[in-house]
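Ticket #4471: structure output looks truncated?

Reporter: J.K.
Steps to reproduce: submitted the chain below (95 residues) through the standard prediction queue, then opened the result file.
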Amino acid sequence: MINTGMLTAAIQSMPRLFDAHDVINEVGHRNQRDYIEQLSSNKDRFPFNTVHSELGRQIKDICLSLGYEQVDQPDYRSKDIFRQSSLCNLWRKRI
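Returned output as attached by the reporter:
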């Protein structure tokens, strides 16, 4: 399962401007077994959507705790793991 430490490490490796999909891709790449276990343990019809929504909420909490700025673009979209455009939070590291 993906934990806070894994998400924090992925977030801290991001460039200055990034979105939640970037973090999910990075944490999944770095922690493939944990990512797959989290997906396979979810019994919803669309486990990627459910797990990615959960991770997105955790990413938001971590980014705010690190003092990152949520960019005010309520309709911001980026491509998810299936290359589908979906709503996503955009973040900026403060320098």
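Triage note (M.O.): checked the attachment and the full token line is present. The longest helix spans residues 47-65.
Status: closed, working as intended.
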